[in-house]
Amino acid sequence: MEKDVHIRSAVLIVEDEPLIRMEAVDMIEEAGFRTFDVGSADSAISTMEQNEDIGILFTDIEMPGTMDGLELAAYFQKRWPKVAIIIASGAVEVKTLNLPEKVCFFPKPYPTDRITKALKSISNNRK
């Protein structure tokens, strides 16, 4: 009997706080996705350049380095337009953001069920 095997796109997690990043990795791996995790936008770009199977960017907004999560999302949309983007923040409300087009936003603490549903929906729409 053949199993229904669905290979999901890998998720690149960008979060500068190590404990929050570990929480995000656990949540996303439990949803059935492979993950890459980094602590800055610069590391995210480098990781993306080396891994063609990343299909979803999951990023925090406030990060140290050359760009924040919103700038990173805009950069990804220009350079890798097929990559889906999810932004999470505990410090910013979605109403005050100028989100790039087609970007999902979730507040922290992570609403695990809603994020898992969004990840699976994104993945299923890419079949």
Notes on the protein architecture:
By secondary structure, the chain is of the alpha/beta class. It has a single domain (10-124), classed as Response regulator (Rossmann fold, 3-Layer(aba) Sandwich), CATH 3.40.50. Helices cover 37% and strands 21% of the residues. It has helices at residues 18-30, 41-50, 69-79, 112-124, and strands spanning 10-14, 35-38, 54-60, 84-89, 103-107. β3 (54-60), α3 (69-79) and β4 (84-89) form a beta-alpha-beta unit.
Topology:
Blueprint: E1 10-14, H1 18-30, E2 35-38, H2 41-50, E3 54-60, H3 69-79, E4 84-89, E5 103-107, H4 112-124
Parallel strand pairs: 1-2, 1-3, 3-4, 4-5
Report a brief summary of the structure.
The chain has helices spanning 18-30, 41-50, 69-79, 112-124; strands at 10-14, 35-38, 54-60, 84-89, 103-107. It has 127 residues and is α/β, with parallel strands linked by helices. The chain is globular, with a radius of gyration of 14 Å.
Helix and strand content put the structural class at alpha/beta
Q: Report the average pLDDT across residues.
A: 87
Largest sheet: 5 strands, parallel
What is the helix content? 25-40%
Radius of gyration using CA atoms only: 14 Å
CATH class: Alpha Beta
Element pattern in H and E: EHEHEHEEH
- The overall number of domains is 1
Percent in strands: 15-25%
Order of strands in the sheet with most strands:
2-1-3-4-5
Write out the CATH superfamily name.
Response regulator
End-to-end separation: 22 Å
**What's the architecture, going by CATH?**
3-Layer(aba) Sandwich
Low-confidence stretches: 1-6
CATH topology: Rossmann fold
Tally of strands: 5
